[in-house]
Specification:
The chain is of the alpha+beta class. It has 5 helices and 8 strands.
């Protein structure tokens, strides 16, 4: 068992064999509502998008309870003059919200960025009405930097997103 494992939850690197579980996760209505995933993504489309692009992609983690993927998170390191920056994306299974899964995924990405990749800034955007996610990010030291107006279309309506960032060594409130 790794440092990121508990008997009931394991956080690990995603693998091509996870494509079916990742597609199922992305097609959940709550997950889709609060992420940028589109509806009706097939297993094959998921596999191509995540594992067969032929170019280096983000670090992709999954959180599993038994054989079920209950969350996912990614860290994409930027290039050039922004090579000190990582962009984060994440989501948790509709049936497993508020069980610490998002915290475990987020702290794994922060550790990766701070201690393994040498990143000094982590960024993300979150829909303005996703209060639980905003509270999670603030707990981890992210602060609001601005609002992107009408940034995402969701259920036929344009929704604003918050831009948030965390600088290395920002205080993290413990569990």
């Amino acid at each position: 068992m790794t440092a990121l494992s508990k008997p009931d939850l394991v956080v690990r690197a995603a693998e091509p064999a996870d494509a079916a579980g990742l597609a199922a996760l992305a097609n959940l209505p709550g997950y889709r509502r609060n992420t940028l995933r589109l509806p009706f993504e097939s297993v094959e489309a998921t596999k191509r998008r995540l594992f067969e692009s032929g170019k280096p992609g983000p670090t992709l983690l999954v959180a599993c309870r038994g054989e079920t993927i209950v969350g996912t998170a990614s860290l994409n390191r930027l290039a050039g003059r922004r090579s000190h920056v990582g962009q984060i994306g994440m989501g948790v299974h509709d049936a497993y919200l508020r069980q610490g899964i998002g915290w475990r995924l987020l702290t794994a990405l922060i550790d990766l960025g701070d201690n393994w990749l040498g990143l000094t800034r982590l960024e993300l955007d979150v829909m303005v009405d996703n209060e639980a996610a905003i509270a999670l990010y603030e707990r981890a030291g992210f602060v609001e930097e601005g609002v992107a107006r009408a940034a995402v279309i969701r259920d036929g309506v344009l929704v604003d997103t918050l831009w948030m960032a965390r600088l290395k060594d920002a205080p993290v409130r413990p569990d």
